[in-house]
Specification:
- The radius of gyration is 17 Å and the shape is globular.
- It is 40% helix and 14% strand.
- The chain is built from eleven helices and eight strands.
- α5 crosses α7.
- The chain has an eight-stranded parallel sheet with strand order 3-2-1-8-7-6-5-4.
- Bound molecules: 2-phosphoglycolic acid (PGA).
- The site of 2-phosphoglycolic acid has 13 residues, from β8.
């Protein structure tokens, strides 16, 4: 069976005291779910979050990393640095990284390689913009993003890859893809993987949906057969809301 995963992307929110407060709230919640639970605080708070959550079922993950091992890349953080503070999973290719920091498919392919070489798990994000959806090009756009960043990999690499379909028009907007739109795209992604690799590989990869998942819509979205979890932004900043989503599984 595929893993269910609910990951909270805190983005650039929460300084150290706020991180501590949210962690305290998270620790008070009950997990009544078979989903793996993850949170992604900012770089500065990763070590503290790991130290606090180490003995719980909540995994601490990173929002981004650089592809190089070390060197003259001012302001950047490498895979081995993340690993040294207990982080074994990294989100790559979030639409905000693509839009505001010019991350291209080619750059993301290098980041994916670096994460995998360092035995990290990758949550790889992609998704179409509103104009792609309106013009009916959403499947082509998503196929291109996946192909360019991932299709140089062997099938075996997909053991360490989680996909996150996040239509850009649904992120932070309050607008969600309908459960049917999510299912259709997830099915398309799985078929794309099966065509390139094989059915077994395609059926093993968890595909998360992201974009305005909230306590009141999570259950319906997660009920779709090809939706294996969620990447949660805004609603991950309140422990009760986040756990209402986790417990929707
Ligand atoms: P949102 O963000 O839940 O606030 O729409 C999702 C994301 O950016 O991963």
């Amino acid at each position: 069976m595929r893993k269910h995963i609910v990951a909270g992307n805190w983005k650039m929110n929460n300084d150290l005291p706020q991180t501590q407060a949210l962690i305290d709230d998270l620790k008070r919640q009950q997990i009544n779910s078979d989903a793996e639970v993850m949170i992604a605080p900012t770089f500065t708070n990763l070590w503290h979050a790991f130290d606090q959550l180490n003995k719980t079922k909540i995994e601490v993950i990173a929002q981004n990393m650089h592809f190089a091992e070390h060197g003259a890349f001012t302001g950047e953080v490498s895979a081995s640095m993340l690993k040294s503070v207990g982080v074994n999973t990294v989100i790559l290719g979030h639409s905000e990284r693509r839009a505001y920091f010019n991350e291209t498919d080619e750059l993301l392919a290098k980041k994916v390689d670096s994460a995998l070489v360092n035995n990290m798990r990758v949550i790889f994000c992609f998704g179409e913009e509103l104009q792609d959806r309106k013009s009916g090009n959403h499947e082509q756009v998503v196929e291109r993003q996946i192909k360019n960043a991932l299709f140089h990999l062997d099938a075996s690499a997909f053991k360490n890859i989680v996909l996150a379909y996040e239509p850009v028009w649904a992120i932070g907007t309050g607008e969600t893809a309908s459960p049917e739109q999510a299912q259709d795209m997830h099915k398309f992604i799985r078929t794309t993987l099966a065509n390139k690799y094989d059915e077994t590989t395609a059926n093993q990869v968890s595909i998360l949906y992201g974009g305005s998942v909230k306590p009141n819509n999570a259950k319906e979205i997660f009920s779709k057969p090809d939706v294996d979890g969620g990447l949660i932004g805004g609603a991950a900043l309140k422990a009760e809301d986040f756990f209402a989503i986790v417990n929707a599984f």
